[in-house]
């Protein structure tokens, strides 16, 4: 029997985040012929409903309220609990983003549901849904089988492919009112710290620098390479601790977990805590002057040499070919 799946959409800077469409895609599989309902929250979000339909949702619930313009835990939690109470879904999915990580355990607790977090694959076998998730900092994967009752899961960005967009699909968009009361959080100002451009956790190409870049200026050739490939710049904690870049760029156990198609580790030794955040990248290219650096053990391609020579050379060659 088909299931009703709610997908909680996430908006950043006025756009729907790609992982929300990946969650819709997982939702279509989990629904198994049932209904996928996307929920989008904000101040005036009806115009953002259409892409959810074209990516596979059957209908969209738009929740508009001035207090939902910017994310706060208590306002979003209250609004979503009202929607979920009304819809009574069999499954709830959302992105495993900063917001997803903040909101999902609270919602799950309030709803009395268990939470399967950070799923990288979803398989449906009849009534059973099998979620794959990394454990031990990505060194192993476990499969969690869900049978009967409701389930709540978060989806790691860049792992489940969004279905092809079908502009011809149609579906209802319903605007609903929610009552938000006793809110304890007031956002006075949002300070954008991270670099503009491609979002690190959703980037297909990442050029990450470590302590080997030597200083802030050392990131410049990496930024040029990333710009050329339409990617994002990341960093090791070594580089962040040395104040060569902002902590928002940190990848690893205590930073962001990323799964790009292509990951350049430049002047990064490959400590276990760094590998925890990037070892599942599809292709890893390591550039390091130390041939014994542990990063070469996980790299698909290794270049031993000085990054300040190699990166400009690589960029020069790439500029000669279409990417
Ligand atoms: P280093 O280990 O100093 O390596 C620098 C590398 O650059 C060396 O391999 C060197 O050969 C190479 N190099 C130097 N100059 C050049 C050059 N000119 N050309 C080419 N190569 C060059 N780390 C993370 O990254 N992410 C985390 O989330 C994280 N979480 C942690 C959590 C805990 C609890 C702890 C204890 C540690 C954590 N760390 C994390 C830190 C981690 O253990 C390492 O210290 C850190 O990753 C090292 O950063 P690095 O590789 O940039 O620096």
CATH architecture of the largest domain: 3-Layer(aba) Sandwich
Q: Which distinct ligands sit in these coordinates?
A: flavin-adenine dinucleotide
* Overall form: globular
Q: Beta fraction of the residues?
A: 25-35%
- What is the string of SSEs from the N terminus onward? EEEHEHEHEHEEEEEEEHEHEHEHEH
Looking across the biggest beta sheet, what order are the strands in? 7-11-6-1-4-5-12
Please outline the major beta sheet: 7 strands, parallel
Question: Which stretches are low in confidence, meaning pLDDT under 50 for 5 or more residues running?
Answer: none
Q: How many H/I helices? A: 9
Rg on CA atoms, Å = 21 Å
Provide a descriptive summary of the structure in words:
The relative contact order is 0.12. Helices cover 27% and strands 27% of the residues. The model has no long low-confidence stretch (mean pLDDT 95). Helix 3 (73-87) packs across helix 4 (98-111). The strands form four sheets. A seven-stranded parallel beta sheet has the order 7-11-6-1-4-5-12, with helices on both faces. It folds into two domains: 4-176, HUPs (Rossmann fold), CATH 3.40.50.620; 205-319, TPP-binding domain (Rossmann fold, 3-Layer(aba) Sandwich), CATH 3.40.50.1220. By secondary structure, it is α/β, with parallel strands linked by helices. Bound molecules: flavin-adenine dinucleotide. Flavin-adenine dinucleotide binds next to helix 6, helix 7, strand 16 and helix 9. Keywords: FAD, Flavoprotein. InterPro entries: DHS-like_NAD/FAD-binding_dom, ETF_a/b_N, ETF_a/FixB, ETF_alpha_N, ETF_asu_C, Rossmann-like_a/b/a_fold. Its cofactor is FAD.
